[in-house]
Every structure is written in C-alpha cells, then in structure tokens.
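Researcher: Quick sanity check before group meeting.
Model: Go ahead. Protein one:
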Amino acid sequence: MRIPRVITGIAAAVLLVAGCGTTEDPSRGDAVADGGQPITVVDSRGKAVELDGPAKRVAATEWNGVEELVSLGVMPVGVADPEGYEQWVSAAPLDDSVRDIGTRGEPSIDAISSLGLDLVVVTAGLPEGALRQIESRVPVLVIEGGNAADPIGSLFSDVGMIAKATGTEPAAAALRAEFDDGLAAAKAEVERLGAAGDQVAFSDAYVNSGSVTIRPFTEGSLVSAVFERIGLRNPWPMQGDPRYGLGQTDVEGLTRLPDVRFWYLANGSLGDPYAEVLADNAIWRGLPFVQRGAVHRFPDGLWMFGGPKSMVQYADAAVDALRG
C-alpha cells in the first residue's frame, strides 16, 4: 500500500526528479560521513542492501522518504512530484537542484537511470514491477512508511535505515532529540493550558460527485500518536487500516463522536470540503462541536505522513489550536 494521497475533488500525484548532485545542509556540515567503506543496510523487506560507501546521489519515490533525506542533510537528486511536495510538505524544503522522475506510483525508469544515483529510497507499496525495474539499475532501500501498531517506532526505524545508508547517523540522533524535545515542550504547554486528556478528532476529507468522504486519523495513525504523546486523546470509534491508521466515514458517521475538539487538514489549492461543501449540511451544523465552535482547520503544508520535522509541526499546531 502506498502512502495515501489526499484527494479533494481531484487526485494528486506526480513524481519529479533531477539535480546536479546531493547537497548538504550547511548547518550539518559534518553530517555525511567521510570515506568510502562498504555499508550494508537491512531494509523493511529484511533484504540486505549493499553500498560501496555512504550514498550521496539519492532519489526517493514518496514524500516521507524525501522529507527524511532533507532533514538528514541530504538533498535528493530526484523527488516524487516536487510541486506537490512543496504544497504539502513545508517542514523540509527542497532546493532548485531537484528534478522530476515521474509519478509517485509510476516513476520513470529512464529518468532514474539517467541520474547516476547511488541509491533510491522507496516506500513499501510501490508496485512490484516498478520496484524490480528500479532495482535492476540502482540499489533500492525500501522503508516501511507506516505501521499502526507502532507509528513512531516505525518512523524512526525508517530514519535510521536512511541515515545508515547515507552516512548521516549523527544527524539522525539530532533529529530524534529535536523530535523528543519538541513534543516534550508541547506536552508541557498542553498541561499548562489545562487541556491534558482532552479528546481530539483529527481528519481530512475529499469530495467525490458532490459527496464528502471523511478520513478519520484513528488510533495507530502517526498524527494521533503525536497528539497522544503530548497528552490528548483520540475519540474515533472506528478502526483504521493496519499501516496508516486511516478510517473512512461520512457526515452521518460524525454523529458517533462525543462532544470533542474537531481538527482537520485541507489544502488551499484543492479546497476545503468542511467549509465549502458541508457548511449548509444540516447534520454537520447540528453536531455539538460545530455548534460550540470547536472546529479548527490546521495550516496548509503539514504532511500527515511525514518525518520527524512534520510531526513537530503537528505538535506545535495542536498547541496553537488549543490556545485559539
């Protein structure tokens, strides 16, 4: 299963690639290990991926892998849909060197082959045919991308694999410290605001043929795990999928929620189903949290399936919503 794409009226997903070479974040000047000793990384398939040395020219076929590379100080040479990435992921911006390699579901094998890559980072769920074609040309590291049984553990397992492959393990340790410190600060603020234990229902939604489908981020989703870590509770009554913790319901399904804080994500370029389609819906207007004004839209550019930096953004945005 690939990382679910947010669809708000239209489907999204195009993979871009290019670049003259890997660049390093100046603030992490020593992040990429020197030397060229062989490296072996066991990926999420249990497969040993053998590299001649730390991978410097790297491409990624999903945005979680892209964000994690950039956060580790490795600017990818090729990226899945950089334009879409820039719309959805503000935590780890790309530079102008990144080029297009096709769509996230169907990366261009020719584009990948032309870049002189050391490694391609792929998220589990890429079609097997595409994976085989890429792997016949370039070493491939398959990261898990999500695991509802342990979403935060899965996230840092992926970061650790990428860090080992790129020789950026010190940067990975710093990224973990930044994540832990950010969530600890947010938890302290939640407690100061008297909101510890509050129930928060987080979702996104999309429109199909005039009907709104709501996607609850149930227990097991990465965003929910972050909210729980800072002291909030997940009230969604349904179970999500085993990888991303995502459920599905409609506006009638929202009547099963208690009187909660209702938070959601939309994207300015694709519209806001809650504000634009459900605004005149009698069921929506009658919900207790709608009537008391406890509905809050999160800022654009927070990727729900992202890396540690995106998750710290979610913790900060949660605190801002509680203050508001």
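Researcher: Fine. The other one?
Model: Protein two, sequence then structure:
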Amino acid sequence: MAKADTLKPRLPRGFPDRTEADLLAQGRMLDTIRQTFELYGFEALETPFVEYTEALGKFLPDLDRPNEGVFSFQDDDEQWLSLRYDLTAPLARHVAENFDAISKPYRSYRAGYVFRNEKPGPGRFRQFMQFDADIVGAASVAADAETCMLMADTLERLGLAGQYVVKVNNRKVLDGVMEAIGLAGPDKAGQRLTVLRAIDKLDRLGADGVRLLLGPGRKDESGDFTKGAGLGDDAIERILAYVGFEASPHDGADRMAFWEKFFGSWQAVVGTSETGREGIAELHAIMRLCEAAGYGHDRVRADPSVVRGLEYYTGPVYEAELTFPVTNEDGQTVRFGSVAGGGRYDGLVGRFRSEPVPATGFSIGVSRLFSALRLTKSPLVEGAAKPGPVVVLVLDRENIAEYQALVARLRSENIRAELYLGAAGMKAQMKYADRRRAPVVVIQGSNEREAGEVQIKDLIEGARAAEAIASNAEWKAARPAQVSVPVERMVETVRETLARHFG
C-alpha cells in the first residue's frame, strides 16, 4: 500500500489498552477481592456483555434516548440489544429467568467489563471493569448491614486499613425530604432524579455546585451546560441542610444516646413523612448491627450525602470512600473519594415477575481502586514484575528444527520458553531477550551442537557482573554468568538458575 493509503492506528476514545504488567497487578487485586467475597459465602456468576435493551428498561442512564448512555444495536430479528452498562441489571434478569432453581437468599459475585455511551474525559472511560457482590431474596436490613461489612473487610484485606470509611444512607429518607418539599408523585419523577444526581456530585462539586444543579443549572469548565432541577431557594436549602448533617460520636460517648439524637434531627427534616421515618429506622438498625459486629464509626457510618445516581435504589444506599489526600488537576489537596457503592433495589428483579423480590448489593470500580492501591504503593500492585520467558537464540537458521526441539524440551518441563523467530543476528537477539525481560537465554552454535552441548546465560547475574567489568575485552574474557552444559542437563541448569532468582 502507498503511504497515503495506510491506516492510522487510533485507539477509540474512552477505550483503554492494558499492558501485561497492569493486568498481572490488577489480577492480584482481583484475587484478594474474590477470596474476601467467597469468605462471606458468595459464589461466582458470569453474564454476557449483551442484554436485550428492554431488560435494562427505564433504568437506562438516559431515559429519553434509547441509544444514549448505552451502546445499542438491532439483531437480525429486529430486537434491540445493548452492551451492559452495569452488572446489576443482568443479575436481575438471570435471577428472574432461573428463579426456581436458585437457592434464596442468593449470594453471587460477578466481575467484568461494562460500557457507557458517554463523553469520555480524564479518568472517565466508556469501557471499564466492575466487581459486584449481591444478595437476592433477603428483605431484612441485616443483609444491607452485612454488605457494608463486606465492603469494609474487602478494603482491609487490600491493605487500606485506616484509609477508608463506608458511608450509609437510605433513599427512603431522601424520599421523605422530597415529600416535604413537594416533589412526591409520579409526575415529579424526572425532577426527583435530577435532584438525586445533583446530590450525588456533592463531593466533587461542593455545596455551591450542587446548589446550581438543584436550581437553574450549571455550566462546567468546558462550557457544557447541565440543566438544573428548578427548585426554589427554600427547597434547595432544606436539601443542603439535610445532606450536611454529620455523624461523629466521640470516643467514650454513649453511642445509643448519640444515635437517638442524630436520627432525631433527621426526623425533623422529613417531618410527617412515613416513608422518611421508615428509612431512618432502617438506617438506625444497620448502624446497630454493624457496631454489634465490631464495625465502629471509624469504618461504617451514617452519612446523608450518599444518594447514588441510579433510579432503581429503593432503600439503604452506601459508598466506600478512601480518605487519604491526593492532588487534583488544579493542584488542590482533596480526598481520593469513592471506590465502591451500591444499595437496595427491591424493584429490579420484580420487573420480570409478578411478586416483589428483595435485593441488595454493591459494585467496586476496579480501575479506580487499582489507581488508589498504586498511590498507596500497595505490595499487591507494586510487586515484582513477572519475569519474561527463557529465550532460545537461533544462530543457525537451516537447523531451526534443532532449536525448536530445545524449546519443546523446556516447555515439557513447565518452563516458560520461546524460540526467537526474527531474522536478526546474535547481538540483536540478546537485546531482544533483554526487552522481553528474559532471565535466561539458551545459546547453541555449530560447535555446541557437534559437542551435544548448550550455553546457558544468566542475564540477571550477568547484568550485575557487568557493572564491575571495565572493558569489552575483560567482558569477553570473563563471560560472566554463562556456563556450557550437555543438552541433557539444559532443563536442570535452567531450573536451578531460575530458582536462584525467583525461589
């Protein structure tokens, strides 16, 4: 092809590539999460990337545009399909489809990529991984309390003790506040959702930014305008007062008395709303259960600012927030923020069935959590990189079958190995082995072949020795970390060399 006709290599916006080093480090983190979930009795489930669009239904991120928020396409039978935008809606479909075969309460965990048809930006991807844990079929708030404990224990096992807090709220309380300011009823559903999404941005935008989103709207730094909820000043201040409550019992305080006073102040905000009062009682019960199990205020606490942006939550909602400071794009010191969140969604499975099905659970943002562990230099993600393969050099191409036999012998003994398949000479092959992070190379020229031998070169020890060798002549004379052995001893010698460095 002419140069003008060649394709330009372009990564689609919002879809990241991942290197082996990142995948291995992330894999160690995922293994720790998986082990913690299994400790609580959760079992693995995998659902496909694609669901019927109607299974997502009114819970699409954008209610008015069927192909906005999600990626959708038509099948050959003209049915609309969508890439999943979270792992919760597919779980609801799976449970409903297999309802009679599943033991309930059903504890499951899922890990996988989800897709958002949204404007990408710094730290905002259109493909990213989530790791979820859910309990379906348990109406008691004890299931919500256990979910909060699981979030806390997962972060503890990832080495983040003392650097996180699980914040808990209840959507029923906020529904009570909505009733108190005149936003009850189906005709106000869109306005309520706008309010929820505004409050959900409190950590990022602060009270002033949320005030604009609750009122006329807000223009961001790029000039994009977000329409507001259109509330009056009194309603805005009532909501901001509610989300500004803080629960901070000091050491030695009578905790029961504290919680009575704290939730009493919430009751003043919800007024006579029965929904709001029910939410406060549920939240109080969750706090009591967590404290009884040893999860104090430093790990799990009530926080009215937690609302979660999705519409399908019906009760308790929670977020795991990392509390250590980081520097944002403007050079300001801020908290790292949320790495996981979820809540109760009693109506989602019931969309497929005639009876209600209670459910609760949470999702970990894998990429964000991975970034946090990098910042804390966690050994899970900062561990030594996986060594490359043993590389068998090819010095005599007409005898390549002989070299392939050497590689096969190493692989048959479970030693990771590859044959050099390029066309370069020995010097370039050695550079290739260095780039591949090969700990060992196997060399066999015509003289070694006639003698039935191979040269085993320890590249790690050789690099150390090279630092003490002054001249090229001295290097050639010393031939550091290189031994000649019979072919029959090749596997044994390579294994001994690897054991010296990697145990």
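Researcher: One line on it for the slide.
Model: The chain has a mean pLDDT of 87.
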